[in-house]
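EI: anyone free to look at a 143-residue chain?
SC: sure, send it
EI:
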Amino acid sequence: MTPPSLQESVVPRPRVAAVLRELIDDNPVVCVYATAGAGKTTAVLQALDDSPNSIAWLSVDETDAAPGRLLTYLQAALAQAGHDTSEAMSALRAGVPHPEVAGILADTIASLPVTVVLDNAERIASSPDALELVSRLGRYLDE
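SC: here you go
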């Protein structure tokens, strides 16, 4: 739930970090695609290194494709970053449909200085339900 540490041996890539930082600042959703081992996580970490925003980092795996689990972990990452997500979690416990809870979660953080990172998101890409949640979160953040 916390961002991984940068290795001491990492080569700084200031131009890549600057481009990513600008994209993150200007857009509600930024996707970083590359092959495994290309340095996506490192590039995002470098871009967020001096960010004034809190960072809610979630490294997902295949088991996180279950919508309730993904929402719970997103909420935990946001809570660890210092944000109150109790309204969304109350809605989840009350049986509100998962896509709607994602919308509530997005509404909760839309005006807050937070950057949400879903690292290894390709691991949930084969789940229509997980993709719907991520899509709903992004759509509500964009409003």
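EI: The chain has six helices and two strands.
SC: 👍
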